[in-house]
Design brief:
Length: about 350
């Protein structure tokens, strides 16, 4: 006859200790310095990832090393210097992600069981270094949080690839969980709507329409099965419903195309040009695919696309910041993490 012990008695009998839990926030990445050398190191790592550029054949390697890494770093370094956090000598993305980590830690960490840290997929601090640090603190369970509302192979999957690569070198691996994309999570949609309305209330003008600009990707990636475009559309649809706007008042566009392939359309820069020429004079732009402001939002949208709009007849342009480490933005991350930690805490 088998004796069945109550759960608490069984725990005591086994002598098991409560494992520490690591929570690792991961964003895309940033150069370590706003000069050509720093950008070159960053771009080489980024553009050598087969999740980002799927065809890593000889022609691409020749183009990358023979042309792109010779020409592009200097130009992008100038763009980074326009937005650089000179006080901390780092990019805003690094500053914001660190703050998100600190605020999440203050909200959920008890200092004993749950340890919160942050990393970048490309650049520093690396995923390898932060997983090593969490393991050194006794974390036997690990929750990885890719800070991308919408899933794509080039972002979320690449984070997982690197995490799995790090774990592949460990004899004693932590138990692993990865948070899912949150592109239509009600908390996320509400936070976006609150952020947009709060910012609009501070403007000296009323926009005729709002443009939701998402990072683009080659059309062929979607044709091959990437769900990213579908999730961007779902985010925009939910945001329209939440704000009571139709498709003519809240437009969906895609930015940051690179190379000569066809990318997801409509293109943000071409839309800015067209809107200005069509007589639209006042617009606001939000970037719901980014959890934190970075080069693509602070320089490409707030400066470059604002200039395109004005050059073509537009008059008033407002950039709406990302959720960043704001109270609504942190509530989204906190709720996501706590939901995925169920059963562990």
């Amino acid at each position: 006859m088998t004796a069945v012990l109550p759960i608490e008695t069984a725990k005591a009998a086994s002598g098991l200790k409560s494992e520490r839990i690591g929570v690792l926030l991961v964003n895309l990445g940033t150069p370590d310095s706003a000069d050509a050398k720093g950008v070159r190191v960053y771009l080489k790592e980024f553009l050598s990832d087969p999740r980002v550029i799927e065809d890593q054949g000889l022609l691409w390697k020749l183009a990358l090393n023979g042309v792109i890494l010779r020409v592009r770093p200097g130009r992008k370094a100038r763009d980074y210097r326009k937005i650089w956090n000179t006080e901390k000598n780092e990019s805003p993305l690094k500053t914001i992600t660190r703050s998100q980590c600190d605020k999440l830690s203050a909200a959920i960490s008890d200092g004993k069981r749950v340890v919160v840290d942050w990393a970048m997929r490309y650049g520093n601090p690396s995923i390898q270094s932060r997983i090593d640090a969490l393991m050194a603190q006794g974390c036997e369970r690990l929750l990885v949080v890719p800070l991308y509302p919408q899933y794509s192979a080039a972002t979320s999957a690449s984070v997982c690839d690197e995490v799995f690569r790090v774990l592949a070198g460990m004899r004693a691996q932590p138990t692993l969980r990865v948070t899912p994309p949150y592109y239509q999570d009600p908390d996320y949609i509400d936070a976006l709507a609150v952020s947009i309305n709060t910012h609009l209330a501070t403007l000296p003008f009323e926009p005729e329409l709002i443009v939701a600009s998402f990072h683009g990707m080659p059309q062929k990636y979607v044709d091959n099965g990437d769900p990213y475009q579908i999730q961007c559309v779902a985010t925009t649809d939910e945001l329209r419903k939440r704000m009571g706007l139709d498709a003519s008042r809240l437009l969906l566009t895609f930015q940051s195309r690179f190379g000569y392939d066809e990318w997801l359309q409509p293109y943000t820069d071409k839309t800015m040009e067209t809107l200005g020429k069509q007589g639209v004079r006042r617009i606001a732009v939000v970037t719901p695919g980014f959890s934190a402001d970075c080069l693509e939002t602070l320089e490409e949208i707030a400066q470059e696309n604002a200039e395109i709009f004005r050059h073509n007849g537009g008059e008033q342009f407002a950039f709406i910041p990302c959720l960043n480490d704001s109270e609504p933005g942190m509530d989204v991350i906190r709720q996501l993490v706590l939901r995925e930690l169920q059963g562990w805490i």
